[in-house]
Design brief:
Strand content: 5-15%
Radius of gyration: 19 Å
Structural class: alpha/beta
Order of helices and strands: EHEHEHHEEHHHH
Largest sheet: 5 strands, mixed
Strand order of the largest sheet: 2-1-3-4-5
Number of domains: 2
Shape: globular
CATH superfamily of the largest domain: Resolvase, N-terminal catalytic domain
CATH topology of the largest domain: Rossmann fold
Amino acid sequence: MSRIGYARVSTVDQDLETQMAKLKAEGCNIIRSEKVSGANREGRVELATIIDFLRPGDELVVTRLDRLGRDTRDVLNLIHECEQRGAFVTVLDPHVSTRGEMGHIVLTVLGMVAQMERRFIKERQREGIEKAKGDGVYRGGKQRLDRDQILQLNADGKGPAEIARVVGCSRMQIYRILKGGEALAGA
């Protein structure tokens, strides 16, 4: 029986250390982490690896439910997949587990709250952008990656994994940029 921790933040400039420390303190002998949106499962390679690895009696541990996902249906599907493998899901804050029937009810409600919170965040973001546009100060989102550098590395024959290491991002981000018009060299 393994306790497997999963830590996630949405953007590359956010820090995983607090989640990692809590998962270690909880006795997780394996911890996987990634910097990717929790809006859906797309690009969440580490989470997919954990789900594939789970065995009967294992436990997937997250610090908060929104680290697992921000869509109620997606979170419930993830929990269902874990249970199909005979594994449990435990959330540390608030402490709730699928080991008991009440845990399922609480996790369902928390999943709905996480989804609602995401909708509120998106709405506030949209309102802020509209106000900034109206004030003439909106210039769009900050570009975090040098697309020209990525395309040049790819043209030089570097593969997506190597490019991701060089520029310090996920392979999925590299694939998205390369898919945006350039052919994948070395892939």
